[in-house]
Structures are given as C-alpha cells and as structure tokens.
Design brief:
The complex is a heterodimer.
Chain A lengths: L1 H15 L2 H21 L7 E6 L5 H11 L4 E7 L5 H7 L4 E5 L3 H8 L1 E9 L3 H23 L6 E9 L7 H31 L1 H7 L4 H31 L7 H25 L3 H18 L12 H7 L3 H14 L4 H25 L6
Parallel strand pairs in A: 1-2, 1-3
Antiparallel strand pairs in A: 3-4
Helix pairs in contact in A: 1-9, 2-7, 2-9, 7-9, 7-10, 7-11, 7-13, 9-10, 10-13, 10-14, 13-14
Chain B lengths: L1 H16 L3 H19 L7 E7 L4 H12 L3 E7 L2 H9 L5 E5 L3 H8 L1 E9 L3 H26 L10 E9 L6 H32 L1 H6 L5 H31 L7 H25 L3 H17 L12 H6 L4 H15 L3 H25 L5
Parallel strand pairs in B: 1-2, 1-3
Antiparallel strand pairs in B: 3-4
Helix pairs in contact in B: 1-9, 2-7, 2-9, 3-6, 7-9, 7-10, 7-11, 7-13, 9-10, 10-11, 10-13, 10-14, 13-14
The chains are: A alpha/beta, B alpha/beta.
Amino acid sequence: MKRFRGFVIKEFYHIFRDYRTLLILFGMPAVQLLLFGYVLTNEIKDAKIAIYDPSKDVVTRRISDKILSSGYFLLEKNLHSVAEIGPVFRQGNVKLALIFETDFAQKLEKTGTARVQIIGDASDPNTANMLVNYTTGIISNYLVSMNSAAVPLRIIPEVRMMYNGELKGVYMFVPGLMAMLLMLISALMTSLSITREKELGTMELLLVSPLRPTQVIIGKVFPYVFLSFVDACIILGLGNAVFGVPIQGSIPLLLMECFLYITMALSLGILISSITSSQQVAMLISLVLLMLPTIILSGFIFPVENMPWILQALCYLMPPKYFISIIKSIMLQGNGMAYVWRETLILLGFTSLFLVISIKKFNVRLA
Amino acid sequence: MKTIFYIIQKEFLQVFRNRSMLPIIFVVPIVQLIILVNAATFEMKHIRISVVDLDLSSTSRKLVSKFGGSPFYQVRQTTFSYKAAEDEMKKGQVDMILQVPAGFEKKLVCEGQAKVQFVINAINGQTAGLTNAYSTMILLDYNREVVMENTTPAMMAGVKNILTEYSYWYNPKLNYKTYMVPGILVLLVTIIGLLLSGMNIVREKEIGTIEQINVTPIKKIQFIAGKLIPFWIIAMFELAFGLSVGKLLFNIPMEGNLGLIFMSASVYLFVILSFGLLVSTITNTQQQSMLVSFFFMVVFILMSGLFTSIESMPQWAQNLDRLNPVMYFIRIMRMVLLKGSSFADISQHFWSLCIYAVLINSLAIRRYRKVS
C-alpha cells in the first residue's frame, strides 16, 4: 500500500509539474463552456434578406415591416429585378429572398387574393427551412390580424415549452460538453500517459518493480479520475452560475453518474493503451474514432430519433449517448434513479467490458 | 532543394512503415464520412406525440387524426390523463403532448374560439422550435377546413387571402446530405492534418531525434517545408478521395469549378498544417501538443458554421470567427460546390486564407529553434 501511495504521488507530480497541460486541462472546459454558451444558438437572428417589391404599396410595406421587425431578419438589399436573386445568393450573404407580385394591394382588394413568393438559399437546408417557416408564419399572422373581424371559429394553439422555456442552446451544450471533455480527458490522457511510458522505455522499469501490474494501471489512472471529476464540477458550476442551467434533480446522483462515466472512459483509455505502442497511434485512435462520433452520434447536436435505423443502432453502441441522456434527465427534467436505471446499467456494462478486455490484453512483457 | 526532398522521403517512410497509422489516416475518415453524413440531419421525421383528448368530440377527433395522418408525426400514446403523458415525456418517449381540453367543440361553436395545448420538450431548442412550427401549420390548416365547412360563401366575402409560395434553391428537396458531405469532409481532413503535423516535431523532441536534425546544416525553412509537404500531399489526396466518394455515393452536386476547390484547398491545408507545426514547436510533449490542438479543433469545428449558423452569433463572436480558418474553407466548399460561385464571389474568403497562411507559416518558422 505504501509503495502504491508513492507511485500515485509520482503520477500527481508528473501532472502538476507540467503547468501548461494543467492550465489547459482546467482552462479548457471553462473557456469552451463560456464561448459556446454565449456564441452557439440554434435560433436564428439577423439573417440577411433581399426583397423585391415592385408594387411598393401599403400592404407590401406593412408585411416587409413585420418581417424586418421580427428580429429574425435584416434587410441586405432591395432588389430591382427577379434576375438579381441568383447573383445575390451566389455571393453568399443573403439567405432568403421575398418577392411580391405587382400591384399587390390592388389585387388583394379586388380579387381577394395576392401572391408572395419566398425563396430560401437551401445550400444550408436547415437555416432555409427555418427561415421559410418563420416567414410564412409572420405572413399568416398578419393575415389573421387583417381578417380578425371576418373569420369566425378560431382554434388558438397554446404552446408550452417544457424544461427550457427560452429555448436556450446552452441547455444542450452543458451535457454535450461534459460528455466530450470527460471522454477526452479520461480516455485520451490515460491512454497517452501509459503509452508514453512504453515509448520512453520507463514502462519496463515499472513492470519490474515490486508493484503489481494492476497497481501500476490503477496508479496511472487515479490522478485522472480526480482531474476529470474537478472538470465535471467546473462545467456544472459554470453552467449553473453563469447561464442559469438548472440542476433539478439530486446532485449526489448526478455526481455519481459523472463518476461512473469517468470510470467508463478511463477503462476505455486503458484498453486503447493496451493495444497500441506509440502515443501517436493512441492519440489518432482516440481522437479520430472518438471525437466526431461523440459530437454527432450521441444526441449532442443531432437528435438520435431522426437518424436512419442503422445509425440509431450504431448510436446505441456509443457510451456518450447514454451519459448525455442521463445528464439531461437528471439536470433538466429533475428525474430520479427510476428514470435512468437502464442507462446507468448500460454504462456499467461498458465499463466492465472494457476492463475485462484490457486485462486479457495486458502484457507484463513488452517486447 | 535536395535537402527538402530527403526530409520528405523520410517523413513518407515513417508514415507508410507504421502499419497501424495507415488505416487510421485513410480508411477511418472515409468510413466516418459515409456514416456521419447520414447521421447529421436536423430533418424531423418522427415527432413522437402523446394525445390527451379530453373533449372526444368529432372536431377534436378530426384534429387528432390530422396529426396522426401527417408523415411527420407518430402517435405514441393516447391517454386521458395528462400526468401519464407527462411521465412518458420524462422518460424521453414522446417529444410533444397534444392536449385538447374538455368542452373544446362547444367553446369553438359558442364563443367562436377555443384553445388546444402543445406541450413540447424543449431541451433541444432547435427541434422544439421546428416542432412548434409544424404543429401550428397543421392546426392552421385544420382551422381553415373547419371554417370552410361551417360558413357560407357570403360570410367569407370580406376575407382576404395572401398566397405564399416557397421554393428552395440549390437544394429543392432540402437534402441534408449534399450540405453535410462537404462540411464533414473538411472536418475530417482538418482533424487528420492538424493531428499529424501537431504531433510531428514534438515527437522528435520527445524521442530526442530532433537533436540529430539540429546539428545538420538543414535550414529552418527547409526543415518546416520538408515536414509540411508530405502531410499536405496526404491531406490533398484524402480530400480528393473524399470528394469522389461524396460524388459516387451521395451524388453531391458539383456546380462550380473544381479547380477553384483545389486551389483553395491547397492554401487551406497550408494554414492548417502550419498551425499544427506551430503548436508542435511551442509544446514539449505530445500530450501537451494534443491538448492544445484539441482545444483549437473543438472551437474551430463548433464555430465553423456547419452545425449552427454564423449569422446568429453575437457580433463579437463573428469578429472572432474571422480567425477561424475552417469557417472560410467550409464556406468556399459549399459556395462553389452547391451554388456554383465564381472566384469573384469567394475571393474575399480566399485572400483571407492566403494572408492567414503567410502569417502562421512565418510564425512557425520563427518559433522553431535549432538551439534547445
């Protein structure tokens, strides 16, 4: 036990003497959370719009005003002909073009109908879809208010946004960022620190020492458990204090789940290091194989339910997916163990799977 | 010149001799491209709803069947207890609860207006917004039908109508894949390029072989060039390969001039690789270098405009984003490939990349010291 303690202390020295790494380790989650919390929003603001309005009458002006004052759009250009739309789109700033027909108000008055055309730049389909939806919404609202005296029988939708009334993007980023950073620090850093000893040749020294191999591994991993845990707390605290992301559920349960996820990531890191011999390979495996999938296949940004079924099946093999849904469930919905026991069991399963494989793969002799 | 050639040869040998590196560099990214492109979609296909119809009148039933009949919705649960529905939402089984209060039809007929409730799980703000938009649209449609059925043409005389038609240019079917392939390809090439170059010099430092190079007459600029060019070739090859896969498998449009793409790519990769080498020269261990690269990579990727739109960022962040090379290149790729933009359209982004390349490369050369 005393030997083991000495070994753990050595590992802590390794980490704490490297100021730069330490700075990045603790600074990174804070900076990224602040950056993304302020910067990344899913809602659309100030999208550039071009308007072609040949009739320039009261109604078209009022509709344009409604659209421009909605906060979604900024007028970039008044077009003089329909032919200008192509070049304007190709320059890349304008996202939406609005085209009124000639004599708009007159036609509306006389025949009861008038036409307006909305063209979205769908080279970014997501934004185009949302913008077109917003615009149609604004126009039909205008129509409803214009006709309010005439139309009987109105069905009014009453919308309640649960758990995130202001539709803040940061509610998605706190769980996602936790999943990503904890994975990085735990899996990557441990796999690098073990392969580093192999690469430098000092692993031999450790293996011939009276420490048992399991003690060596646990000793290497231990400081990172601590570091990751501190990072998890930084993210949770900042998210709560700065962005007001609530922690509805029980905090001990939340921390316990973080701990479980960290253990899972660490055992993955051990697994990676037991099958590789150089830091470069270990890093490429962890980053290339883990980074984009953790962003894309975990429900961090793209909802899993919308994917084709093969990919959904693949998502079920991604540990971060379970962690993210656990965190969301506990933090934002205030659920207890009764709602997350299944995900918790799955994470436990992953952990033991990774551990068993790496123990089988672990070799006391290096060459 | 000959010196540079030898360094290039050495680097290539090092990459190609490492059996486990090759698949990671060439196969994994392409596999990821194929998989991730399918995953990265905001398309809402199955909005899972729970219906709480407390009215059970013909009007409310028709309304519910409107939702059930829409291809976007999937009725997961029909219940009379709002609590049960909310519980289902807590479990993450439904995205929206549609509640029709008791006395809905009566109110509609007697008072001329009535309410229904949409309760939406808004943890993901974006999908919540879309769910709301779709649901309101269905409701408006249905409302129009109800009005038509219950009024005479004479009553409708004063009602005006504005017909809105919409069309989507460059991607009429809103196919997310054509949008995602160029973007994700850029990300993959960037990750590989940045990692390879970022780990390179620092690895030589760690192993100690940098000393052997330092005592040779190789000039700084030759050394950096010799390190840069092999990865540049690998990354260019990878980009071309990825584009072909995109064309063959996903049939992404290539409206513009491909020469323009490769011209911009050559400058872009120069920026990324120099960035990696710069990181490599200022760090001491591979672990440090990896952390620094990772930090910048995540920021670059998430701010690149691929996942969220740049226009909706606050102004200071948009200004900051001018330092993000990934943003420029993703824009260029999309503008040229999807919209057929010409050089004049992308020139601003292109020159920004050029300036970036010169700056960061001279910085990397300056920071590399032959004396440790």
